[in-house]
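Hey, can you fold this one?
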Amino acid sequence: MKNVLKLLGIIALAAVIGFSMAACSDGGGGGGGGNDGSLNGTWTHEHIPMTLTVSGSNYTSKVEGENFGKGTVSYNSSTITLKTTHAWDDVHSKWASYSETTTCSYTLSGNSLTISGVVGDYSDMNGVWTR
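Sure. Predicted structure:
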């Protein structure tokens, strides 16, 4: 069961990356990174056992409480960019270099972060993340 949930986490990360490529801006517009602290905290998806912790300009993601990915984050009122610099290597139990940049839109209302518009295999990413 643990491996199945970890696989769901991997699919979720792939969905975030795929969603950003399919549905979000290619970076031409949307303003610069403001990082006003509004996304600071730990966000948990309503259906997937995955968390995203934002602290200033850094983020860490976990699946079932285990390390998954980390890097830098920048955002303004409607656009967030995650630059993943490391992914967790289960075989060697350490962070491994990794490079992926994801930019997309989001809405924030209090302690709810909403992502919508993901279709197909990764539609599980749609929904609410709460902190």
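Strands lie at 41-45, 50-55, 58-63, 66-75, 79-89, 94-105, 107-109, 112-115, 127-130. Let me know if you want another pass with a different chain boundary.
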